[in-house]
Amino acid sequence: MQSIEILETLVGFPSVVGTPNGEIVAWIRHYLQRHGIAATELPGPEGDRSNLFATIGPVEVPGYILSGHMDVVPAAETGWSSDPFRLRADADRYYGRGTTDMKGFLAAVLAAVPMLAATRLRRPIHLALSYDEEAGCRGVPHMIARLPNLCAPPLGAIIGEPSNMRAIRAHKGKAAARLTVRGRSGHSSRPDQGLNAIHAMSSVLACANAEAARLAHGPFEDVFEPPYSSLQVGTLKGGQAVNIIPDTCEAEFEARAIAGVDPAILLAPLRTAAEALPQLGFEVEWRELSAYPALSLAADAALARLLGELTGIEPLAAVSYGTEAGLFQRAGIDAIICGPGDIGRAHKPDEFILVEELLACQAMVEALAGRCAA
């Protein structure tokens, strides 16, 4: 099958983050089996979604991982010109949810599978396909934990997030959390009889604002934009009507950290501020939503040199968005980002990918196979 045919099939699976993914896992697994490649399904703790891992070549020899996620963000936003889960062609553009982020990469890799299977590889190429990346990289840690039982220690991992086929050596880490404050409702004319949850939340919001301002003063890492860690309040919900004392308020916080900084630590002052509220009679619930570390691969790392040679483009130092790459690096596996498409098209109506981008990615995978066969 050509990459466009495969992409059409993959887009047709509405594998939205946080939902069961059995259909897309089964199709990919069957496709690999048709080419003589056994794939291991790795169910997650949720019970209704799985990672998928496969090896082409000798499993006992160190090789390279091609990593991508099978989930996509929802497509409920207005502005789509056609069904987001049906691939639509317009000249050299192919529209659909996930075409760029990141089923295009999966399609290009799977299109290269017949060539990989027919090549006598001295070093293996592994396919590591994850679930729920869009929810903060929730699926891939379970697969990474299983790698010692699945293959020899890999030489590196290529994460195929959209990068215009230019390798990227670094990205920021991220942590997100949700705080729920519960007070006591009542008529607004008697504030003395209630506990205003929004007023209570304001102390945590003030802390978040102060921490965001503090982080802007450094430490700095010039490869990022902005060159410092950041923190923000992303959502805020509370209250029913202006004359009712709000008994509940909910906020979501996000921190993005430069290399060497634990993003979860950046949220610690907010949690401390929240934990002071029960002394005033409020109930609080702090829930960690997601966390993944930054990626930082040295410019002279063998994996960076390899990707520069495979693509013919000097790797880019860094981007500010995050990927699963930092989790591979934390597990002791060098990682780098390189995939088809542009991140600017992701998570938007009429997401698309170009034919030439798919072909360039497939060529990169096949060139990697050539190196592994040498």
Q: Your description of this structure?
A:
With 374 residues, the chain is of the alpha+beta class. 32% of the residues lie in helices and 23% in strands. Helix 1 crosses helix 3 (99-118). The longest helix has 20 residues, at 99-118. It is elongated, with a radius of gyration of 23 Å. The model has no long low-confidence stretch (mean pLDDT 97).
Structural class: alpha+beta
Shape assignment: elongated
Question: Can you count the helices?
Answer: 10
Kindly state the percentage of residues in helix. Answer: 25-40%
Distance between the termini: 26 Å
Q: Largest sheet at a glance?
A: 6 strands, mixed
Strand content: 15-25%
Brief descriptors of the model:
EC 3.5.1.16, six-stranded mixed sheet, Acetylornithine deacetylase, 374 residues, hydrolase, four-stranded antiparallel sheet
Topology (SSEs and partners):
Blueprint (H helix, E strand, L loop, with lengths): L2 H9 L10 H13 L4 E5 L6 E7 L7 E6 L18 E3 L2 E3 L3 H20 L6 E6 L9 H11 L5 E4 L10 E2 L1 E10 L3 E2 L9 H19 L14 E9 L5 E2 L2 E10 L5 H4 L1 H7 L8 E10 L2 E2 L5 H10 L13 H6 L4 E3 L14 E3 H19 L1
Parallel strand pairs: 3-6, 3-7, 7-16
Antiparallel strand pairs: 1-2, 2-6, 4-5, 5-17, 8-15, 9-13, 9-14, 10-12, 11-13
Helix pairs in contact: 1-3, 3-10, 5-7
